[in-house]
Structure formats: C-alpha cells, structure tokens
Amino acid sequence: MATPSNQYRVNHQIRIPRVLVIDQNGVSLGEMATDVARKMADEAGLDLVEVNPNQRPPVCRIMDYGKFKYEQRKKRKKQTTYTIKGIRLRPKIGDHDMDVKVKQARAFLEAGNKVQVTLIFRGREMVHQDVAMGVLERFYQQLEDIAKVEREPSLEGRRMTLLLARR
C-alpha cells in the first residue's frame, strides 16, 4: 500500500470510532464502526480512505488507494503550463521595428507561450489613443494566422495591453 498524502488517511490511520462509508461504486453504506468498515475493505481487497475528515462522522470511501494516487498524478501531468512573454511597443514604432517584434511574438506563440503586448505612452502621446489602437491592430493582423486575442486591449495608466494566445 502506498504512503498517504497529508490530505487522506488510509486504513490504520483512521482513529475515529464511527465513520460514514461509501463503497467502491459510490453507494453510501451509511454510518458504521471503523473496524467493520476496515473489514469490508479488506474483504474487497481495497483500502478504506478518509476523504472528508471535517464532517461528523468523517466520510470514508472504499477504494484502491494506489490506483487513486496514480490517477491524480496523471491528471497533474496533463495540466498545461505556460508563461506570459512580454513585447513592448510605442505608438510611433517604425515598420522594421514592428516586423522584428512580430517575429519575436510569433516565436513565443509557437513555443506555447502567451504574449502580452504592452504599448507605452510618453508625454502627449496619451492624446492619440486611436493611433495606439491602430498599432495594436496592425500587430495582431500580422499574427492572426497563429494567434487569437485572449484579452482585448485595455488602458491602465500610461500603458495599453493586449494578451494573445496560440490558436
């Protein structure tokens, strides 16, 4: 039998005299003595696992604990992890500079990362937010084949941000 995690108690670790038991099919067997529940689990060749210690009486389930832990590890491995990479632009960015930034963003997206495009305003550039929206729109159009907008452009202080993710 595998060693239990901090969250679950298995067979011999359950010290409460009475527990509410759920069998391997998910059917509630009702409240019974812990020794009787352990005996039922042993007869089925399974473990008695405390799944909700905060309820009175605690809820225990008859299951294969090793298989349960294995399934949990498999679920954890399937979770996708990503990082957010940042690209900084200015409203007066040149065409070549824009192409370089688009190329960087494309590489980030192909690697499975998300891209946060930050357009920074200085001085009186704040007055021309329509120009900034045009720059962000032009940036997105060049990445439209590989990216989708995850968060629309939003203005926060002197920064306008756009979040892109892979299609």
**Tally the helices: what do you get?**
4
Gross morphology: elongated
* CATH topology tier name of the largest domain: Translation Initiation Factor IF3
Tell me the helix content: 25-40%
How many domains is the backbone divided into?
2
Write down the Rg: 28 Å
How many strand units? 9
Relevant CATH superfamily of the largest domain? Translation initiation factor 3 (IF-3), C-terminal domain
Distance between the termini: 44 Å
Low-confidence stretches: 1-5
Mean pLDDT comes to 89
| Strands side by side in the biggest sheet | 1-4-5-2-3
Output the structural class: alpha+beta
- The secondary-structure element order is EEEHEEHEHEHEE
Major sheet description: 5 strands, mixed
Task: Provide structural commentary.
- The chain has helices at 34-44, 65-78, 95-110, 129-143, and strands at residues 9-10, 18-22, 28-33, 47-52, 59-63, 84-89, 114-120, 147-156, 159-166.
- The protein is an alpha+beta fold and 167 residues long.
- It folds into two domains: 9-77, Translation initiation factor 3 (IF-3), N-terminal domain (Ubiquitin-like (UB roll)); 84-166, Translation Initiation Factor IF3.
- The strands form two sheets. It has a five-stranded mixed beta sheet with strand order 1-4-5-2-3.
- The longest helix is centred in the middle third of the chain and has 16 residues, at 95-110.
- The radius of gyration is 28 Å and the shape is elongated.
- The two termini are 44 Å apart.
